[in-house]
Amino acid sequence: MKELGPMKVGLFLFIVATQRTPSKPLTACPMDILIVAIVTFAINLLLGRWRVRYRKFSPMWWVLIHASIPIVIPLRIGLGVPLWTVPVFITLGVAGQALGARLRW
Protein backbone atom coordinates (compact mmCIF):
# COMPACT_ATOMS: atom_id res chain seq x y z
CA MET A 1 0.00 0.00 0.00
CA LYS A 2 1.31 3.39 -0.96
CA GLU A 3 2.01 5.77 1.90
CA LEU A 4 0.20 9.10 1.82
CA GLY A 5 2.38 12.15 2.08
CA PRO A 6 1.76 14.73 4.81
CA MET A 7 0.56 17.23 2.19
CA LYS A 8 -2.19 14.87 0.98
CA VAL A 9 -3.27 14.06 4.53
CA GLY A 10 -3.41 17.76 5.39
CA LEU A 11 -5.44 18.52 2.27
CA PHE A 12 -7.84 15.67 3.07
CA LEU A 13 -8.32 16.89 6.66
CA PHE A 14 -8.89 20.47 5.44
CA ILE A 15 -11.59 19.33 3.01
CA VAL A 16 -13.32 17.21 5.63
CA ALA A 17 -13.18 19.97 8.26
CA THR A 18 -14.57 22.68 5.98
CA GLN A 19 -17.51 20.74 4.56
CA ARG A 20 -20.81 22.17 5.72
CA THR A 21 -22.81 19.61 7.64
CA PRO A 22 -25.32 21.62 9.67
CA SER A 23 -27.17 19.93 12.47
CA LYS A 24 -30.20 22.06 11.64
CA PRO A 25 -31.59 22.90 8.21
CA LEU A 26 -30.40 26.12 6.61
CA THR A 27 -33.91 27.56 6.54
CA ALA A 28 -35.65 28.34 9.80
CA CYS A 29 -39.13 27.18 10.62
CA PRO A 30 -41.61 30.06 10.20
CA MET A 31 -42.94 29.31 13.68
CA ASP A 32 -39.47 29.96 15.16
CA ILE A 33 -39.33 33.34 13.43
CA LEU A 34 -42.81 34.14 14.73
CA ILE A 35 -41.86 33.15 18.29
CA VAL A 36 -38.80 35.42 18.29
CA ALA A 37 -40.84 38.24 16.73
CA ILE A 38 -43.59 38.01 19.37
CA VAL A 39 -41.09 37.79 22.24
CA THR A 40 -39.15 40.78 20.86
CA PHE A 41 -42.27 42.92 20.54
CA ALA A 42 -43.73 41.89 23.92
CA ILE A 43 -40.53 42.46 25.89
CA ASN A 44 -39.97 45.86 24.30
CA LEU A 45 -43.61 46.80 24.89
CA LEU A 46 -43.11 46.27 28.63
CA LEU A 47 -39.69 47.93 28.65
CA GLY A 48 -41.07 50.93 26.75
CA ARG A 49 -43.81 51.31 29.35
CA TRP A 50 -41.22 51.20 32.10
CA ARG A 51 -38.85 53.55 30.25
CA VAL A 52 -41.23 56.55 30.34
CA ARG A 53 -40.68 56.82 34.11
CA TYR A 54 -37.07 57.90 33.61
CA ARG A 55 -35.54 61.08 32.29
CA LYS A 56 -34.58 60.89 28.62
CA PHE A 57 -30.94 59.83 28.02
CA SER A 58 -30.38 58.96 31.70
CA PRO A 59 -28.37 55.77 32.39
CA MET A 60 -31.49 53.79 33.34
CA TRP A 61 -33.24 55.00 30.17
CA TRP A 62 -30.35 53.58 28.09
CA VAL A 63 -30.43 50.32 30.04
CA LEU A 64 -34.14 49.90 29.35
CA ILE A 65 -33.65 50.65 25.64
CA HIS A 66 -31.05 47.87 25.34
CA ALA A 67 -32.32 45.41 27.97
CA SER A 68 -34.05 43.12 25.47
CA ILE A 69 -30.89 42.43 23.47
CA PRO A 70 -29.42 39.78 25.85
CA ILE A 71 -32.76 37.97 25.70
CA VAL A 72 -33.55 38.19 21.99
CA ILE A 73 -30.10 37.33 20.56
CA PRO A 74 -29.65 33.99 22.39
CA LEU A 75 -33.26 33.10 21.59
CA ARG A 76 -32.69 33.84 17.89
CA ILE A 77 -29.45 31.87 17.80
CA GLY A 78 -30.86 28.99 19.83
CA LEU A 79 -33.83 28.59 17.50
CA GLY A 80 -31.61 28.88 14.42
CA VAL A 81 -33.36 31.94 13.02
CA PRO A 82 -31.34 33.38 10.09
CA LEU A 83 -29.56 36.73 10.06
CA TRP A 84 -31.85 38.27 7.45
CA THR A 85 -34.53 38.56 10.15
CA VAL A 86 -32.45 40.87 12.37
CA PRO A 87 -33.79 44.10 10.75
CA VAL A 88 -37.32 42.81 11.31
CA PHE A 89 -36.62 42.19 15.00
CA ILE A 90 -34.98 45.62 15.40
CA THR A 91 -38.07 47.23 13.85
CA LEU A 92 -40.34 45.24 16.16
CA GLY A 93 -38.21 46.27 19.14
CA VAL A 94 -38.44 49.96 18.26
CA ALA A 95 -42.19 49.64 17.61
CA GLY A 96 -42.67 47.87 20.94
CA GLN A 97 -40.73 50.56 22.80
CA ALA A 98 -42.67 53.35 21.08
CA LEU A 99 -46.07 51.75 21.61
CA GLY A 100 -45.26 50.83 25.20
CA ALA A 101 -44.32 54.43 25.94
CA ARG A 102 -47.65 55.68 24.54
CA LEU A 103 -50.01 53.11 26.05
CA ARG A 104 -51.79 54.01 29.29
CA TRP A 105 -52.49 50.86 31.32
Keywords for this entry:
single chain; 105 residues; mainly alpha; 0% strand
Summed up, what is this model?
The protein contains 5 helices and no strands.
3D structure, described in words:
The chain crosses the membrane at residues 30-47, 59-77, 83-101. Keywords: Membrane, Transmembrane, Transmembrane helix. With 105 residues, the chain is an all-alpha fold. The protein has one domain (28-102). The protein is built from five helices and no strands. It has helices at residues 6-18, 30-51, 59-66, 69-79, 86-102. α2 runs antiparallel to α3 (59-66) and α2 packs parallel to α5. 18% of the residues are buried.
Helix and strand layout, with pairings?
Elements lengths: L5 H13 L11 H22 L7 H8 L2 H11 L6 H17 L3
Helix pairs in contact: 2-3, 2-4, 2-5
- Number of domain units: 1
Question: Helix share of residues?
Answer: 55-70%
Helix-and-strand structural type: mainly alpha
> Looking at the structure, what is the overall shape?
elongated
Number of helical runs? 5
On the 0 to 100 scale, the average pLDDT is 84
Keywords: Membrane, Transmembrane, Transmembrane helix
Transmembrane segments: 30-47, 59-77, 83-101
